[in-house]
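[Q] Does anyone have a clean structure-token version of this?
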Amino acid sequence: MKGKRVSESQVEMAQVMLPEDANAAGNVHGGTIMKLIDNAGGVVAHRHARRNIVTASIDRLSFHAPVYIGNVVFLKASVNYVGRTSMEVGVRVEAEDLDTGRRVHTGSAYLSFVALDDDGKPTEVPPLIVETETEKRRYEEGKKRHLERAARRSR
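[A] Here you go.
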């Protein structure tokens, strides 16, 4: 199977946060951000595998700062690591205040996706071609997290 470069599947998505996205405190619901993270990660995984995918896990989801109504949320997502049938995708969330242009890193997450064949069974995915030092570092860190997840499942 021919490998794919990180750049072939990475995405940047943007969405304005509206009043229906708010919680009682007037900030954007964490669940709304989680859904956006899963969507961005899923697009990347599907683009890499060119197959239907399912979310297997969300690891280390961290919220660093609130997102406010009227902010534009940017999600930057790319494949970090590829196993035989699964992929780890990293997603960085930033919020921009449209009035000031100030952008804040508001959250990050690592998601695992599994590619499915036409019968809904796990199927192989293309290997990942890492080219830059950053991609190599992310690959090694993703591999370590992959092994940690496997160890937790076997316990």
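[Q] Thanks! Anything notable?
[A] The two ends are 32 Å apart (CA to CA).
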